[in-house]
Structure formats: structure tokens, C-alpha cells
Design goal:
- With 366 residues, the protein is mainly alpha-helical.
- It is built from 12 helices and 2 strands.
- It has a domain at 314-340.
- It has helices at residues 14-20, 30-53, 79-85, 104-114, 123-130, 133-156, 172-176, 186-237, 243-308, 314-327, 329-339, 352-365; strands at 89-91, 98-100.
- A two-stranded antiparallel ribbon has the order 1-2.
């Protein structure tokens, strides 16, 4: 199919003749000239639009044109899974019952008391749970939630900037000027994550050490059980209460302990060396894993904030995030369905001072 050409108005056409004004009487009515010109232009536009619909022409996007604002960029994609994970269960190692995750830590000590267990029995499941990926995700979600809402509120009203976390600005005036705003809270997030990850890894290390100590205790108990088994056999061989029988029994006990002392000590040493190396390997692997998660999440948070910077309905985005934080995913989803997408072809409702403030920050980055 040939691409239709847009008809051009002749150089010596209606307007040219009309504007010459040589004093001669014009026979062409001005209104007729305008109507004819409009008809020609309408016909040309219709031909081009038809060509575009047929796939003959491709409209080229302007290279520097601002991308269209996504009316759903406010949605916190991970939130649904974060809230759903809270409904899953964990098996209690004391009572072997499924316990909802949000109640697991509070369940442990009463469960130990009810089942006649020492409180030490709760330490391994407690620190295992505190160092799970589930707890990491929940803590990370809380940090993102706090920092993102603070940042969005600053974009909406600069007067809230004093409430926003900051580790970049050297002075209070720099912070009031918004010098940290272009960083999109990345450094603040990494700092908070660093503090949280140190605690998370401390829980994990404690969990590994408790497991090692439990295994050492089990090995020692096995050695003691072997001695008790031998002692029972010896007592049966020398049942009398006289001095000679007692001397024979003590000699057998002593001989047994001397015979197993070195193998038992070697077994413990070998286990401890292996456990220490295995714990070190697992700790380093876990550390690399959580650090990678933190870096990736910092990038995701930055993209999220950047995608919402230019939204004219930022006040609704903030309201959505606060509902998500305070009332949960289902309430936020209902608000989302009833509110978004909002009209984007309306004036920015931010106050003039905030718009000027953000504009000044942008110019300083150029």
C-alpha cells in the first residue's frame, strides 16, 4: 500500500491571492476560502490516520518525551505476599503442633512450661525462627514502609522534610534544602538494613552455636550411656558387697574409662572442628545472601519512589500506603479498586512552595 501524501495548499492559492490586495474586486468570498482550506486539511488528516491504523505509518515517539505515568505505580508489589506469609504456620518442636507465625514466639515458653520442659528447650526454635527468611522479609518490609511513606510525604509537602530519615546531609540546613532527596532514601535504607542485618546474623549465629552445643551434649550423653551399660554388666558379674568385689568393680570401671577416654575425646574434637567449619561456611553463605537481598531491595525501593515522583495524585498514593500499613492488604486493595486510576490530566495539587522547592532540587542536579 502506498503512503498517501498530505495535500499542500498551493503557493499561489487562496490565501496568497486574498492577501495581495491589488485593488481589484475579489470574486472569492473569504468564508468560502476558509471552508475550502479546512476541508482539504481534514481530508489530509483522515488519510494519514487511516494509514496509521493500517500499520503503514508508525508514529515516532519524541526522544526526550517524559514517559507516561503508570497509574498503578503506587502498588507495593511485595505487600500481598508479606501479609500472606503471616498466615502460614511453623511446627513447634516442643508440642509438634502447627502454630501461626505471628503467634510462634509468644507460644514457646508457655508451651515448654505446660509440657514440663526446661526453658532452654525454647532457645533453638526461638533463634531459628528469628533468623528465617520470613523474619528478614518482614523486617525489611517495615523499613521500606517507614522510609517510603516519609519520602512520599516530603514530595507532597516540603514542610514534612524534618521528619524524613537522613544520613547524607552534613547540616540541618542542607536537609531542609532537600540535598538528600535525589538519593531517594537509598543510603537511609542501607543504614537501617545494616543495623537490622547485624541483629539478624547474630540470631543466626546463636542458632548455629546452640545446635552445636546440643550435638556435643548428645555425644557426651552417648559416652555416659556406654559407661552405664558397662557398669551394669560389671555389677552383675561382681554382685557381692564385700571389699574384694568392690575393688574388682572399681578396677573394671577405671579400665573402661582409660580405654575409651582417648577415642571419646577424639570424637568430640573431630566433631567440634567439623561443626565450627560448617557453621563458619553456613554463616558466610547466609551473610552473602542477606547482603545481596538488601542491595537488591534498595534498588527496588529506589525504582518505586522514582515511579511515583511525578504523580499528581500523590496524596492518594500516601493514603493507600498508610491504609496498607495500618489496616493490611485487603483494606488497601479495596481502597485501590475504588480510587485508582485517578485522572492524570488535572493540575498538580501540590502547593506552590513544594513545587518550587522540588524544582530547585532538580536544577541543582543538572
Amino acid at each position: 500500500m502506498e503512503i498517501p501524501e498530505i495535500p499542500n495548499i498551493p503557493a499561489q492559492g487562496f490565501l496568497n491571492n486574498f492577501l495581495q490586495g491589488d485593488g481589484e474586486a475579489e470574486e472569492i468570498n473569504e468564508q468560502a476560502v476558509a471552508q475550502a482550506r479546512d476541508a482539504m486539511l481534514r481530508q489530509a488528516r483522515q488519510q494519514v490516520e487511516q494509514a496509521v491504523q493500517n500499520g503503514v505509518l508508525q508514529r515516532q515517539e519524541a526522544p526526550n518525551r517524559r514517559p507516561r505515568i503508570d497509574p498503578y505505580s503506587h502498588i507495593f508489589e511485595k505487600a500481598r505476599n508479606i501479609f500472606r506469609q503471616r498466615e502460614y504456620t511453623e511446627i513447634c518442636g516442643i508440642c509438634n503442633q502447627d502454630i501461626v507465625r505471628t503467634e510462634f514466639l509468644d507460644h514457646l515458653e508457655p508451651c515448654a512450661q505446660q509440657n514440663g520442659k526446661d526453658v532452654k528447650e525454647t532457645h533453638i526454635p526461638k533463634y531459628r525462627f528469628l533468623s528465617t527468611n520470613y523474619m528478614l522479609d518482614q523486617k525489611m518490609f517495615a523499613i521500606r514502609d517507614e522510609l517510603e511513606i516519609e519520602f512520599l510525604e516530603v514530595l507532597w509537602d516540603k514542610e514534612t522534610v524534618h521528619k524524613m530519615h537522613c544520613i547524607l546531609c552534613k547540616t540541618y540546613n542542607e536537609h531542609l534544602n532537600g540535598d538528600c532527596v535525589p538519593n531517594l532514601q537509598k543510603q537511609a535504607f542501607l543504614q537501617k538494613m545494616d543495623q537490622m542485618l547485624n541483629l539478624h546474623m547474630c540470631y543466626y549465629e546463636t542458632h548455629l552455636e546452640l545446635k552445636k552445643e546440643r550435638e556435643i551434649e548428645q555425644i557426651r550423653q552417648a559416652h555416659e550411656n556406654e559407661f552405664e551399660k558397662m557398669k551394669k554388666e560389671v555389677d552383675q558379674r561382681f554382685p557381692s558387697d564385700n571389699m574384694i568385689a568392690e575393688q574388682n568393680r572399681q578396677a573394671e570401671y577405671r579400665d573402661f574409662r582409660e580405654r575409651v577416654a582417648e577415642p571419646n575425646a577424639k570424637e568430640l574434637q573431630e566433631y567440634m572442628a567439623h561443626a565450627n567449619e560448617e557453621n563458619r561456611r553456613q554463616y558466610e553463605f547466609k551473610k552473602r545472601q542477606v547482603e545481596a537481598v538488601a542491595r537488591r531491595e534498595a534498588g527496588v525501593m529506589k525504582e518505586y519512589l522514582l515511579s511515583n515522583v511525578c504523580r499528581k495524585d500523590l496524596n492518594k498514593v500516601i493514603e493507600y500506603r498508610k491504609i496498607l500499613r495500618d489496616q493490611g492488604w485487603e483494606a488497601a486493595e479495596e481502597f485501590d479498586k475504588s480510587t485508582f486510576p485517578t485522572p492524570q490530566n488535572v493540575p498538580d495539587a501540590r502547593n506552590e512552595e513544594t513545587r518550587k522547592w522540588l524544582g530547585a532540587i532538580g536544577r541543582r542536579q543538572d
